[in-house]
Design brief:
By secondary structure, the protein is α/β, with parallel strands linked by helices. It has a domain at 4-86 and 154-216: Rossmann fold. It is built from ten helices and ten strands. It has helices at 42-49, 71-77, 93-103, 108-121, 137-149, 167-182, 194-200, 218-225, 232-239, 243-258; strands spanning 4-13, 16-26, 31-35, 57-62, 65-66, 78-81, 155-159, 186-190, 203-208, 211-216. The strands form two sheets. The chain has a six-stranded mixed beta sheet with strand order 6-7-8-3-9-10, sandwiched between helices.
C-alpha cells in the first residue's frame, strides 16, 4: 500500500487551474520531494491530501483512506507542518502541546517526556512558556514542528519546513526526516531549497502549472533531461523550462551592475 496516492486530481479557482490531472504516489518508508515554481500547485495539492480542500475531480488518499471522505482519519495518520504559520497566539507552546495531546487522546506521561526531548533538541526551553504571539518566526516554526511530531505519525507532510529555521534547527530537522524514514515512516516534503531535496529525498516529483512534468530519482531525472551529473537545481530549471529566463535575467543584472 502507498503512503500517499493521488490520482487524476483537479482543482480550479475560477479560471485558474491550480492542479491539473495530477497523479503520483509516495511509497511507504520513502522521502518524496514535491517541487515546483511559486504558484505551481504544491500547497493546493497538499491541502487536498489533508482534506482541507475538496478537489473538483480525482481523489487523494493516505494509507488507503480517502482524504475527502475521511479527513479526520487521515489527520490521525499525518503530522502536518503547513507553509502558513497557523497557531493560537494567546497560548504558550506548552499549553498548545497539552491541548493537542488531549485532542489526540495521547498518554500525558509519554507526551510530557516526548515534548521535553523535542524542546531540548530544538533549543526551545526558554520559549516554552512564552505566549506564541511573542515568538519569532523561527520559534513559531519550531512550535509547529513539535506539534506535528507529538503523536508519532506514520506520514510527515512538510510544506516549506525549513523557512525561518536557524542552521542548527535546520540540521536537526533534516535528521528528524531521515530518522522518521529509517523507522518506516514516510515523508512528503515540499521545498524551494534544492540542496535539501537533493540530499534528503529518495524520489522527486516536479510540477509546473499544476501538471507533473517529471518524476523519479535524481539519476532518472538526469537521464530524462540528458544532463549527466547535473545538480537538482539545474535539472529543475531545465524541466520547468526556466533556463532561458534565468540566463536572460542574469545577463540584464550583469549589465545593470556594470554601469
Amino acid at each position: 500500500m502507498s503512503a500517499v496516492n493521488i490520482k487524476n486530481l483537479v482543482k480550479s479557482f475560477g479560471e485558474l487551474v491550480a492542479v491539473n490531472d495530477l497523479t503520483l504516489d509516495v511509497r511507504e518508508g520513502e522521502i518524496y520531494a514535491l517541487l515546483g515554481p511559486n504558484g505551481a500547485g504544491k500547497t493546493t495539492t497538499i491541502k487536498m491530501l489533508m482534506g482541507l480542500l475538496d478537489p473538483d475531480s480525482g481523489n487523494a488518499s493516505v494509507f488507503g483512506i480517502n482524504s475527502q471522505e475521511n479527513p479526520v482519519e487521515v489527520k490521525n495518520l499525518v503530522g502536518y507542518v503547513p507553509e502558513e504559520q497557523q497557531l493560537y497566539d494567546s497560548l504558550t507552546p506548552r499549553e498548545l502541546f497539552d491541548f493537542i495531546a488531549s485532542i489526540r487522546k495521547l498518554s500525558q506521561e509519554k507526551i510530557t517526556k516526548r515534548m521535553r526531548e523535542f524542546v531540548k533538541a530544538l533549543d526551545f526551553e526558554q520559549y516554552y512558556d512564552n505566549m506564541i504571539v511573542t515568538l519569532s518566526q523561527g520559534n513559531k516554526q519550531k512550535t509547529m514542528l513539535i506539534a506535528a511530531l507529538l503523536h508519532r505519525p506514520k506520514l510527515l507532510i512538510l510544506d516549506e519546513p525549513f523557512s525561518s529555521l536557524d542552521v542548527r534547527s535546520a540540521k536537526i530537522m533534516k535528521d528528524i526526516v531521515k530518522i522518521h524514514a529509517e523507522n518506516g515512516g514516510s515523508v512528503l516534503l515540499s521545498t524551494h531549497v534544492m540542496e535539501v531535496a537533493e540530499g534528503l529525498c529518495d524520489r522527486v516529483g516536479i510540477i509546473d502549472e499544476g501538471v507533473l512534468v517529471a518524476e523519479g530519482t535524481l539519476d532518472e531525472l538526469r537521464t530524462q533531461s540528458q544532463r549527466e551529473g547535473a545538480t537538482l537545481e539545474v535539472l529543475f530549471l531545465k524541466l520547468t523550462e526556466q533556463e532561458e529566463e534565468v540566463a536572460e535575467g542574469v545577463s540584464v543584472l550583469r549589465e545593470a551592475l556594470s554601469d
